[in-house]
Amino acid sequence: MMNTSPGSFTVSGLYSNEEIYKTLGVGNTGGVRVRLGPSGNVERVVVFTSFPTARQLVENPYHDRLEGDVLIYTGAGRSGDQSVSGPNARITQQQDECFPIYGFMQIGSRRNTAIGSKRWSFLGLIEYLRCYRERQVDSDGMQRNVWIFELRVHSDPADVQVAADQVISRELLNARRTEINGTDREVVPISESDGISQRHLSLLEPIRRRLLGYDPRQFEHVVQDLLRQSGFDQVEVTKYSQDGGIDVNAKPGKFAWPLRQLLVQLQAKRWLHTVGRKEVAELRGSLKPHAAGCIITTSRFSRAAIVESTDAGKVPITLIDGYELAGIVTSLNLNLA
Q: Model-level pTM?
């Protein structure tokens, strides 16, 4: 798709690095570029990312990726512990200052001369959701602390006029404030108070990494295997629909005889981004009458999701995060093919 006239960016339009940095008034290098105003305030931020191939995801599932409309963006630094500082820290200021963040995805490397200079596709304006620290394996195979940014990509408006981007961004973000509250932005940290030491995290992380390498359908079948090995009967993966509904149905086995008629309905989310309150509420709405619900994810839950899962007067929803899931895999000695 051809780009529009100078001074605007169209979603899915292709642009050169020069067009981007000159039009938006940012630097010409770096994954996160910031334009500051005369008083030092942030006027706009530009985020550059590239998405891996399926093979690269299996080798390293922590690559930046787009899951639905959420971009998971790892902070700068390929080895060693990371910190939220410099341009990365500017992203988090959007929540208070409402400045626009532009997102661009590289469609090919500079070595591919057939593509030409217009190798950056405009994803749309980006909304900062949350950031949090987690453990990962770096490029040298060592455990380290990294910072993960979760950013919502907005394809509407499809055409962004740079001269009006601050007004557009403020209107867009103010409309979203009613949908996301503070506790849904907050990720519940995994700490020793949860009974998981840093040493234990280091043992669980390779298993979680392997689970992240599966595609969503494969992950559902892993959950099926876990349930069967845990003694559940009538374990069935539902028809694949990607509609956010029920992924696996099961009933307790003979050793849970007081509950043998109970239907358990599970949702399996092979995600890097956080499961929020909305997903918990939606699963509850999808349950059959008198069924028990459970969300299993390779990621984490927001504080609002945890509160929603046990809200008084509502059907409780069991939440299993990526590290608890890795622990279950370990305890059952499940062979991850």
A: 0.81
